[in-house]
Each structure stands twice: as structure tokens, then as C-alpha cells.
Amino acid sequence: MTKTSDRLASLDGLRQRIEEIDAQLHELLMERAQISTGIAAAKRAAGLDGVLIRPDREAELMRQLVERHEGVLPLITIEHLWRTIITASAQIQGVFRLHLDGSADLADMLDLARFNYGFDPEIIAGNDAADVVGAVAASAGDLGLVALEDRSELPWWRGLSADGAQIIARLPFLILDGRMADMPALVLSRALSSEVLCDTRVYDARWSSVLPGDLMSHGVEVISFHRSAHGVDALLAVSAELSEEEILKSCEEAGAEPDVLRNVGGYSAPIDVEGDADDDFEPAAAEG
């Protein structure tokens, strides 16, 4: 047998192995879908219909993927594939729609939606973030995507509530240089059960004066703020280990205790895969 024949035989063997792996993957996906059908039936029997997404479980799955990932296949590809599979499984349990923040760039919002939730969910573009909050609150299990901007044109988070829409996730979850679908955003849904765990809580905070400029050094991240003639509204992210009393104390030590402090959800902290610290948002910029 010539060297060329040997190479062709080896190539045929590799292609055959890929076909075998593809068949195994397909079989496992079908089995996974069947299990999702069983989960849906069990939920209905237990009266647990409602929000279909478990962001804490998704976050744990992504962490495990990052820890065990190796080889030439990009991690971002793995993330996209798994998120698509997760959404497809959720859609088997019950259909949900995605409401998009219409005040943000539509192309970027669509990229974010399709990357994280695939092509199964119906997409509805709202007028602005407040419109998304209202649509999610009025739904049985829809999700909303709101662009996360340092300085917001309106304090849309005032519409969040324990019996309506709340923040459940922050995107992107895997932070990578040069990644696609990298628009910073928050995911909204109807309030989740107390069984859902998060390591970061989000608060609606309001000051009648200026926003304290030293919050970050006290463990309080300002992820968005809105200034008006009445003062400053801010969306704060803090460790879930801190009590509201401790948060108020931190704000006081930073310059001023807020007039209002109200929990509006939480999320699992994103993973900086490459270990580069993001540029911290400077609260002092709100005073300018």
C-alpha cells in the first residue's frame, strides 16, 4: 500500500469516527429532550408552572464548562451551543418569549438574544426598558433583555417588584476579549422561587442629593444611574452575603445613606475567563 493510500485510509477512518460521534451526540440530545418532557410533566403535576429558566443552574453549568474546557474548539462556541440546548429544553417545558429593550441598538440586542437563547423564542421589541419591565411583569414566563448603560435615560428599574418583573441574570456571563454578542445587559423575568440562588443582589437606591463617589471601595457597584432634578436613582450590585443594614452602612461610610433601598433581583456574577479586571465604573462621574 502506498503512502497516499495509507493517508486516505487514515482520513476515511477519522471521518467515520466523526460520523459515530455525531450519531452519539444526536442520540444524547434526543434523550435529554425526553427527560425535559418528563420534567415538564412533573412540574405540572406539582403545580410549578411559571418561569422556565433557572439562571443559577445555567451559571453553574457554565462554570463547569470553563473549568474542564481544553482543546482547539473555542470556549465561546461551547457556550453558544450549550445555551441553545438549554433554551430548547426550556421551550419543551413551556413556550416563552423574549422582550427586547427598543431604546438600545437593535442589531446588538438581536445578537445578544440569539447567542444566549437561540432561534426558538419569539422576539418582541419594546419601546424602551420600562416597556420591557411591564411586558415581563404581565406575562406568565417571558424573559426581557435590557441594555445596561452606566448612565440611563430613565430609572426603569423603579418598575421592578417582588410580585412583578425582577433581574435574574447579567450578560455576557463569560467575559472574553473580542467576543461576539458582548453588549452588557440584564435579563428580567417574573420573580423566581426562593430556591434560586445568586451570589450578587441588585438594589434600587435613591438619593435626593448626589450619588456618593466612593461606593466601589465599600463593596458596592453602581451598575447604572439616572440623574434628575429630584436627585439620583441608582442600580446597585452587592454581594448576596451583605444584609440591607450593612449596605446602608457602606453607603453612609461612602458619603450618604440612600433615601430608598429596595431589592429588585440578583444574578450569578459573570466570569472573567482571561482574568483581566474590567474597568471599574466610577460613581463620581454621576456628580458631573
From TrEMBL:
Which EC numbers characterise this protein's activity in its record? 5.4.99.5
In this chain the Chorismate mutase domain maps to 5-97
SMART domains found in the cross-reference section = CM_2
Which molecular function GO terms apply here? chorismate mutase activity
The cross-references to Gene3D superfamilies, in alphabetical order and at most eight, read:
Chorismate mutase
Q: Which GO terms describe its biological process?
A: chorismate metabolic process
Q: Which Pfam families match?
A: CM_2
Please list every transmembrane segment annotated in the UniProt record, as residue ranges: none
PROSITE patterns membership: CHORISMATE_MUT_2
Q: What is this protein called?
A: chorismate mutase
